[in-house]
Amino acid sequence: MTLRRKLCAEEQAEADNQDKQEQTAHKLRETVERFRTTFALRALHDKLPLRFPSRSPEAFVFRALSWYTHPGWERLTTLKQLANLSAFHVALLLVDFAPLRSELVALTGIHLNAPGQTPFDPVSLFLCCLLRWEKGLGWKDLAKRLAGPEGACWRRLFGFQQDCTPCASTMRAFHNSLGTTFNIDLCPRFVELIHTAGLLPRQATHPHTPTDRGIPVAADGMLHEAHTTMRCGQVTDTCYQPTSPQQPRPCPARDKGFDGCTCTEEVCRQRCRFTTPRDPEARLIHYTGSNQDGQENSSRARNVYGYRSYTQVLPDDELHTYWVAYTSLNAANSDERVIMPNDYAHLRQRLPDLHIAEFVADAAVGYKGCLDPLYDDGVIPVVAIRHDKSDTDQDACKVRGYNHNGYPLCAHGYPMLFNGLDYQRLRACWTCRQICTRQLHPKSADADCPFRDPDRPLGMTKHVGRAFIHPDGSKHERLARLLPYNSSVWKEHYGARKNAVEGRNSQIARLGLKRIWSYGLEGAVADTSFVDLLINLRTLGRLVQQATLLDT
Fold first, then answer.
1. Across the strands, what pairs with 219?
2. For residues 410 and 432, what is the distance between their CA atoms, to the nearest angstrom?
3. Residue 207: pLDDT band by 50, 70, 90 thresholds?
C-alpha cells in the first residue's frame, strides 16, 4: 500500500502541466547535438560506471548478510531492455554506490566482524531508502516487497540473497542513523558526479547569453506539513521549556487572545501539553498564495504547520531539464530573506567549481540582504520585483526617476528603453531614443528637451546598477534590475528557469512529500534529501535512455 496521498485538484493540474512540459522538452532535446554527444551510451562508455563521490572511498571487505557490487551497465546495450526499464533502474546501472561503504559504516556504527548478529551491507540499505521513495512504500511494505517475488530484481541490484532481506526496523534504524550532515550533502555530491562526467554544462547554454558566462541557479521555497498533527498554532521555543511557580512559562497563544494553556497542571511541567514533542521544530504559517506584501490568493491561501524547504536547482536551458543542487529545511515560519543568503553561500562553498552567472527567484528574496551577495559575487539577480502602493503614484515615480517596473524615466516622465547589459560592470544601459519626438499628444516642455540632436539618436542615457539613487541621495534596491522586468528578455531568462524549480516542487508533491513522512526536523531533512536525490537519478536515467535510443 502506497503512503502517497491523492493529489488535490490544484496539485493534479500542476502535475499534468509538468507532464506536458516534459513531453515538449523531450521533443526539443532531440534536435540538440550536445544531447546526443553527451548522454548517449556510446559517449559515456569510457566513463562508466559513474562512481558516487564519498569522503572516505577506500574499499574494504567484512562479513555481511548482503553485499552490493555494481551490477554493470551491459543490459543498457540491449535496446529492447533499455526501452522497458524505468529511469531509476537505468540510473542504478549507471552509478556505482560502492564508494559510500566505508563512510556509511562510520556513520551507522556497524561493528565489523564482531560477535553478535551479522549486519547487512550499508550500501544495500542505502539503496533500500531510495527504493522506498521510488515505490512510495512504508518500511513494512518495503520489507514485504523485497522479500517477495516482486523484489527479485531489486534484490539482485542491491546485493541481497533471496531468503535474507532486511526487516522494516533494520531499514528504519539505518535511515535514522545517517545524520543531517550526510543527508543534505547527497545532492551536492550528485552534482559533483555529473560535473566530473561532463554532463553538466560549464558555460551558459542560453542563446542570448555570452558563452563565457556561467550557468544559472533557480531557487524557490516549498511548505510541508509536519508528520504530527498540530495542537496549537502559536507554539514557540518557550513552550518546550520546563515551568515552575517561581518561573511560570509564558503562553504566546493567551498573549494573542486565544484560549491557550495556563500550564499549571502536572502534565505541563516539562512542556506544554499542546506542543508536538515528536516535531518540536514545526511551526505554523499562513501562506497567502502570493509573494507580494498585502496580497492574498484565496484559491491558494492555507495554514501550514510544519517545515519550509528551500531548493536551489541548476537549469540546463539547452536540454530543457534541471538538476537539484542543494535543499535546506527550516521551520515553516522561517524568513526566506535569512534562508536564501545562507543557502547560496553554502552552495558556493560546497561547489566552488560551479561558475554561476544568474540567480532566478521570486519576489520573496527581492531585498538588499539577498541581492547584495549576488552582486558581490558577480551574479545577475533575475529576481521578481516587489510592488508597493507608491508605484501607482505617477508624480512620485517622476520625482524618483523610474516607474512601477523599474524602468528609468526621462526628465519629462517618459519610460526609457533598454539598450543592453554591461556584463563586466553589472549595470544596464537605458536610452530615451528621443521618445518625446514621437508622442501623439506631446507635452509643452517636450520641445525644450536638450537630447533631440538628430546626430545623437539614442538621446539621454542612464545606467542602472544594484540600486536606484533618489534625489535625496538614498539608495533603493526594490525595483532595480539589470534586465527589464516583464519584457521578452526578462521572460527568456526567468520563465523556463522558474518553471524548473517549480517542476521540482511538483515532483515532490507527486512523490507524496507535501506532508513529511518522518518525525522531527532531522527526519524531514532525510526525507527531502533522498527524494531530491531520487529526482536527480531519475533525470539522469531518463536522459541517457532517451539519448541512447535516439542515437541508435
1. 312
2. 7
3. low
Asked whether the beta carbons of 357 and 213 are under 8 A apart, the reply is yes
pTM passes above 0.90: yes
pLDDT digits (tens, 9 = 90+) for 393-418: 888 898 999 999 999 999 888 999 99
H, E, C per residue of 230-265: CCCCCCCHHHHCCCCCCCCCCCHHHHCCCCCCCCCC
Check residue 21 and give its pLDDT: 77
Q: What are phi and psi of 525, to 5 degrees?
A: -60, -45
476, exposed or middle or buried, with CB in 10 Å at 0-12, 13-18, 19+?
middle
Distance set, CA 292 to CA 160, 309, 499 (Å)? 53, 20, 19
> Are 132 and 142 contacting, i.e. CB atoms less than 8 angstroms apart?
yes
CB atoms within 10 A of CB 234: 17
Between CA 193 and CA 54 the distance in angstroms is 10
**Is the per-residue pLDDT at 173 higher than 90?**
yes
Compute and round to an integer the Cα radius of gyration of the chain. Answer: 27
* Contact predicate 181/328, CB 8 Å: no
Band of residue 7 on the pLDDT scale cut at 50, 70, 90: low
In whole angstroms, give the CA distance from residue 129 to residue 47: 26
Domain definitions of the chain by residue range: 9-203+521-551, 389-484
Q: Quote the cell numbers at residue 496.
A: 523556463
